[in-house]
Amino acid sequence: MKSNYKAAPKFEPIHSSIWTPMNVLLLASLVLLVIWTFNPVSKLGFVWDDLEYVQTNKMLAQPLTKSIAHFFGQNYYVGNYHPITMSSYALIYQKAKLVPELYHQVILLFHVLNTLMVFWFVLILSDKKFAVALLVSALFGVHPMHVESVAWISELKDVLFSFFFIAGLIAYLKSYASPKSWYYILLSFVFFVFSVLSKPAAVCFPLVLMCLDYYKLDKPWSSTLWNKIPFFIVALIMGLVTIKAQGKAVGTIEQYTILERIMLSSFASIFYIFKLFIPTQLSALHPFPAKTGGVFPMIFKLAPFLLAFIIFAIWYFRKQSKILVFGFLFFFANILLVLQFLTVGMAVVSERYTYMPYIGLFFILAMGMDQYLNSKTGKLAFKSYLMYASYIPVFLFAWLSKDRVQIWQNNKTLWTDVIKKYPESAVAYYNLGTYYLKEKNDDDSASAWFQKTIQKDPNHDRALINLGLINGRRKNKDLAMEYFKRAEKVNPDFFELYKNRGFVHSLFGDTDLALADFSKYLNLVPHDAQILYGRGLIYQFKKETENAYLDFSNAAYYDAQNANYWMTKSETAFSLGKLEDARADFNKAIRLGAKPDPNFKQQLGL
Fold first, then answer.
1. Residues 6 or more apart from 484 whose CB is under 8 A from it?
2. Beta bridge partners of 5
């Protein structure tokens, strides 16, 4: 088979041999620099979405085969379908349980591997230019905008999907010069499937392949589209699955006008480009802009013109610099879906979204440097100084990243930092309140932060619900119900409302009202073992033993490591005359550490 491969403009490498002892030492030094930069992540705790991904995820405690089958089923976590990532959490849980250190170490390991993968990818892409590959991978490995992807346990999906994504790109590049191109394209497709099952962001993969075709082939795009049809089919399927998984997280068209969406998307593009060079004022959350008099701040109005200027400049220089065009195409292909034209989530930009796209921009910088160093213009001495000076940003970025990692220590440090950057962010106040409520069991501090939340956003349903819960625990029933009433008016379909209001009803002995709320909650969240158990106790109190037994059975199924659930199920089975089931459940509870009641054990004949 005749190869269609045509290399981009070549420049003589500085070294005739790639794997000199010095180059091996430089690559090893890069690995050590990345480890030094991010090694503090091992001492970080769980933050933010880690609660749902790991801390309260009962499926992780199930037998491995059961949990993996569950994750590959139609089950979504935090608005995403990523079964490989969730299965990876299950694997780590087998060893680490709820100790965060190993989770962080696994993410760091993949980030180091990704840095090496980027080196390999760029080495092939640049026709074996070691200096270019080293600089791109160094910038990738230590850039402060990548701290979020490495320091946050919830972003295991980021480093996993990127690992398979880059592996797929490497395989595709190898298909150009290989007589068995079909083998490498097939291998690329397999890596793509792994990538998209790790994080849906990988749906942009076929677009990135088109970017590689543009850079490496002297043929029109239309002639190479046929081999990407399977990639586009998988991307379309995963796109539809993601839309379903995101649900209400995807903004409606009416929320912002078309012009406002153009402003938001343009601002996001400019933000990401600007932060590549000046990564300061970073934050875990960059909220959507507040409107003054119904309009966005001036920077959002200017953003479309700034972006148009950049695009025009790229188009103008397209014949002089294929590298420039390719680098920006790579950047935009990877970041296109998160530019907030269709608003998703609560942030106008997110630093973790740059993890893959920045490779394209780094490539422009490194190849531009390489072209100048190998050109006939300029003094040789100046070029030597410039080559060494090009690594000053790498060490500066490493220092900034190492310092930035500390912000992710816990929810208090994280959200205190966000409030410093965005003092009007209701979300930051709410999350700080949640830290005191759930991690410190400090109702007074939590209440103060939730009050600040509703001062910033009077319709913040979660803060209203938690204020209802806190006042219920304070035995202030009327005020608790007032907060629940306000929350229901804002969002009558929010499941947490029924869970917490049901709990408060049960505190005051209003069993019928508690039962109604728990039932509404379980219609929306059927796998919550704690609420199943609580509703079972209410059924038991009301002498509805069959219903109680069903709820206890489901609670034990969904949280199979809870000895109390199995013991209660055993007692209820015994009262229903199910002696063999009662004995089996009793033995299960004992194996899990329950203390046996001698009288009940005797009744079971054990």
1. 464, 465, 468, 497, 500, 501, 504
2. 217
Token pair in block for residue 329: 């195409």
Q: Which residue has the tokens 């019928």?
A: 512
Q: Hey, which residues does 287 pair with through a beta bridge?
A: 347
Cβ proximity of 572 and 549 under 8 Å: yes
The alpha-carbon radius of gyration of the chain (Å, integer) is: 28
Q: In angstroms, rounded to a whole number, what is the distance separating the alpha carbons of residues 256 and 341?
A: 9
Q: How many helices (H) and strands (E) does the chain have?
A: 29, 2
pTM: 0.87
Q: How far apart are CA 176 and CA 487, in angstroms?
A: 58
Give the integer Cα–Cα distance in Å for 303 and 297. Answer: 11
SS3 (DSSP) at 586: helix
CA quadruple 558, 560, 565, 568: dihedral sign? positive
How far does the chain reach from its first CA to its final CA, in angstroms? 75
- Say how far apart CA 380 and CA 393 lie, in whole Å: 22
Provide the token pair at 198: 């790790």
Q: What are phi and psi of 326, to 5 degrees?
A: -60, -45
Give one DSSP letter per residue of 528-588, joined into a string: -HHHHHHHHHHHHHTT-HHHHHHHHHHHHHHTTT-HHHHHHHHHHHHHTT-HHHHHHHHHH
Judge whether 275 and 400 are in contact, CB under 8 Å.
no
CA 93 → CA 61, 272, 327, 451, distances in Å? 7, 34, 39, 36
Q: Enumerate the domain spans of the chain.
A: 21-408, 411-603
d(CA 228, CA 168) in angstroms, rounded, equals 13
**Domain 411-603 falls under CATH 3.30.300.20:** no
Per-residue burial over 289-317, b = 16 or more CB atoms within 10 Å of its CB, e = otherwise: beeeeeebeeebeebbebbeeeeeebeee
Q: Which residue type is seen at 351?
A: E
Output b/e per residue, 239-252; b: 16+ Cβ within 10 A: eebbeebbeeebbe
Quick one: which of 296, 301, 331, 328 has its CA closest to 313?
328
pLDDT along the chain (606 residues), means of 10: 44 57 92 97 94 89 88 81 93 94 97 98 94 95 97 96 97 87 93 96 94 85 80 91 66 68 93 96 92 85 95 89 94 90 77 96 93 72 70 94 96 96 94 94 95 95 96 95 95 92 94 96 91 95 95 92 93 94 93 90 88
Determine phi and psi for 362, rounding to 5 degrees.
-60, -35
Token code pair at residue 448: 């103060």
- Concatenate the DSSP letters of all residues of 144-159 into one string: GGGHHHHH-GGGHHHH
